[in-house]
Amino acid sequence: QVQLVESGGGLVQAGGSLRLSCAASGRTFSSYAIHWFRQTPGKERELVAVISSAGNTYYVDSVKGRFTISRDNAKNTVYLQMNSLKPEDTAVYYCAADGRVFATRPDYWGQGTQVTVSS
Length: 119
Description:
- This protein is mainly β.
- The relative contact order is 0.32.
- A hairpin with a 5-residue loop joins strand 5 (about 45-50) and strand 6.
- The chain is globular, with a radius of gyration of 13 Å.
- Helix content is about 0%, strand content about 50%.
- Strands 2, 4, 5, 6, 9, 10 and 11 form a seven-stranded mixed sheet that branches. A four-stranded antiparallel sheet has the order 1-3-8-7, with no helix packed on it.
- It contains no helices and eleven strands.
């Protein structure tokens, strides 16, 4: 069982930065791939970034070069550093854990954190 808690969301102007954190409970955190999804009303949930248990990363094209996902297994935490934010990045961001990378329906989810980027 893994419990996830996101933090770090907020309101920022376009061009600004935010760092989201996903803190996990559970002794097997390091064995999970951690996914960041985002969702806005009326749109499908979108996979933004993934980091595998080995530290390999993946990004959706729209955030490449602007977002960085990283993990600190000693702290049971995954980070999503978001730079050069755009209004279209506005969404609720969720972290999710699964034993598989690119899981479409990960086993464990956080409650989400709102990111709002003003123009």
